[in-house]
């Protein structure tokens, strides 16, 4: 098919042409997904660590629920946030529907379970390893959370990247709560859906290649940071 | 180590919060600075490029930005019912009149029309190209049990298609009748992939860039007429909406200037929408 060969040329044109529309879409994609991941990280890491350290009735059920939510279909997350933010919904007064803020909220819902569930597992393993030392230092469990998170930081970078991958790849949630409005809530993935529906497959695939490149750049940055700190630790 | 941890955590916290604040600030930037309305409309108007052609003219004149959420007609009604759009531009006259009767809309007006066309594989296995009427064409497809791709998404096009089957006295079903539950573009993509017949609005078809083996096989029957209407939403039900701005958009669409803009829009030299406001 001609569109396959055309896609790379289109992607190259898009990048080299520095089309202002495309730049806007790329900037919004990064802003929405990075903000969502930052919020989910702030909440998810301590939450995951707390789940690893505390045992309470129903602990197992919470862990299973969190793990199950990692598979939450984006379109379902989007629908729930839509019903919440719609004028007829409980938070309708805020008027957030069809804004980038609504997209951030939807992506936090998607990313938070991934970061919390994976962080719980990492911290739990580390805690098993160092339990006696930590107890002999007389640290309370609340104090252990930052210590363990810091010690697990290299692994947690991968956890956060998994969350970012989810956020930047999903289309179902941002399509519903953002509305794919040109110049306001159009991001890379919704633009790809739009161009596919117009039958402009080379442009759609070209946009896909650009998106993949962006995600690769973010991952490369995280890798470099990880390697540097690993070397410093010896 | 503790000291460092706290610094790192604080740094992450500040970074996250500032990013969230920035996202919010940029997102609501134009809410403070500019006037805008949210318009729920159909994929056919958006995908064909009509809005890109006419909205800038309206914005230049009035300073009002129009933010288009392009979905199927069924979903557009639902968005408007919930109070999430300031205005509607859709193509399901019966549904639009019901919307007004139910008290959600206060006014409905004809804006423009185009027509539906029947697309099919170049070989035309059911032989519909020579049919006299669209009813006959659909009957031929059903008799031949040739694959037919239906939107199946409760959109304006889908509703029109179901009415045409009914008028043709055929109850579509069986292996050959495939309900895709997708928008017009995705349905054309799929139909191209499985060499199926499909009914499309002319605008989406003309602007569609991946026809593969598909061709326009049947057109011109009056039953294929496709009317678009603009609706204003009840102030009583949804007092928070921007009724004044929506009214300006509605009136502009019906004005000589708006009608001219619609008529002037062409793709590949073809006029796609015909203004017919009274």
UniProtKB/TrEMBL annotation, chain A:
GO terms for biological process: transmembrane transport. GO terms for cellular component: plasma membrane. It is a multi-pass membrane protein. InterPro entries: ABC_perm_TupB-like (IPR049783), MetI-like (IPR000515), MetI-like_sf (IPR035906). The chain crosses the membrane at residues 33-54, 61-85, 97-119, 148-165, 203-225. NCBIfam families: ABC_perm1 (NF038017). This is Tungstate transport system permease protein. It comes from Halomonas shengliensis. The lineage of its organism: Bacteria, Pseudomonadati, Pseudomonadota, Gammaproteobacteria, Oceanospirillales.
Automatic annotation (TrEMBL), chain B:
SUPFAM superfamilies: Periplasmic binding protein-like II. InterPro entries: ABC-Tungstate_binding, PBP_domain. Residues 30-257 form the PBP domain. Coiled coil: none annotated. Keywords: Signal. The keyword rRNA-binding does not apply. Pfam families: PBP_like_2 (PF12849). Residues 1-25 form the signal peptide. PANTHER family: EXTRACELLULAR TUNGSTATE BINDING PROTEIN. This is Tungstate transport system substrate-binding protein. It comes from Halomonas shengliensis. The lineage of its organism: Bacteria, Pseudomonadati, Pseudomonadota, Gammaproteobacteria, Oceanospirillales.
């Amino acid at each position: 098919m001609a569109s396959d060969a055309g896609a790379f040329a289109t992607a190259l044109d898009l990048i080299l042409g520095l089309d202002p529309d495309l730049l806007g879409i790329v900037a919004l994609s990064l802003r929405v997904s990075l903000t969502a991941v930052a919020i989910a990280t702030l909440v998810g890491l301590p939450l995951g660590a707390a789940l690893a350290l505390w045992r309470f009735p129903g602990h197992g059920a919470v862990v299973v629920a969190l793990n199950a939510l990692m598979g939450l279909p984006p379109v379902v997350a989007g629908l729930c946030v839509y019903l919440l933010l719609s004028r007829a919904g409980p938070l309708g007064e805020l008027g957030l529907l069809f804004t980038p803020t609504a997209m951030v909220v939807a992506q936090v819902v998607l990313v938070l379970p991934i970061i919390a569930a994976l962080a719980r597992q990492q911290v739990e393993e580390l805690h098993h390893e160092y339990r006696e030392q930590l107890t002999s230092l007389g640290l309370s469990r609340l104090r252990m959370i930052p210590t363990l998170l810091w010690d697990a930081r290299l692994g947690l970078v991968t956890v956060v990247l998994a969350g970012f991958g989810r956020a930047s790849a999903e289309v179902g949630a941002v399509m519903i709560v953002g509305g794919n409005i040109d110049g306001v809530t159009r991001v890379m993935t919704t633009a790809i859906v739009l161009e596919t529906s117009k039958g402009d497959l080379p442009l759609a695939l070209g946009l896909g290649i650009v998106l993949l490149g962006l995600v690769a750049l973010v991952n490369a940055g995280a890798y470099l940071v990880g390697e540097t700190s690993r070397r410093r630790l010896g | 180590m503790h000291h460092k941890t706290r610094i790192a955590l604080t740094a992450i916290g500040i970074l996250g919060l500032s990013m969230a604040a920035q996202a919010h600030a940029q997102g609501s930037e134009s809410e403070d600075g500019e006037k805008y309305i949210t318009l729920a409309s159909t994929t056919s108007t958006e995908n064909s490029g009509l809005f890109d052609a006419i909205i800038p003219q309206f914005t230049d004149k009035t300073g009002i930005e129009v933010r288009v959420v392009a979905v199927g007609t069924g979903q557009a009604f639902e968005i408007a019912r919930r109070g999430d759009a300031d205005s509607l531009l859709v193509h399901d006259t019966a549904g639009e009149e019901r919307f007004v009767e139910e008290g959600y809309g206060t006014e409905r007006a004809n804006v423009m029309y185009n027509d539906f066309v029947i697309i099919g594989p170049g070989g035309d296995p059911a032989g519909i190209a020579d049919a006299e009427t669209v009813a006959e064409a659909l009957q031929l497809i059903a008799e031949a049990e040739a694959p037919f791709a239906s939107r199946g998404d409760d959109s304006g096009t889908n509703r029109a298609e179901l009415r045409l089957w009914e008028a043709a006295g055929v109850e579509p079903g069986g292996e050959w009748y495939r309900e895709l539950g997708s928008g017009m573009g995705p349905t054309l993509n799929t139909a191209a992939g499985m060499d199926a017949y499909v009914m499309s609005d002319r605008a989406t078809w003309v602007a569609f860039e991946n026809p593969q083996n598909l061709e326009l096989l049947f057109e011109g029957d009056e039953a294929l007429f496709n009317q678009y209407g603009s609706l204003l939403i009840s102030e009583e039900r949804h007092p928070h909406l921007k009724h004044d701005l929506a009214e300006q958009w509605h009136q502009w669409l019906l004005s000589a200037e708006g009608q001219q803009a619609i008529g002037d829009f062409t793709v590949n030299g073809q006029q796609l929408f015909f203004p017919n406001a009274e």
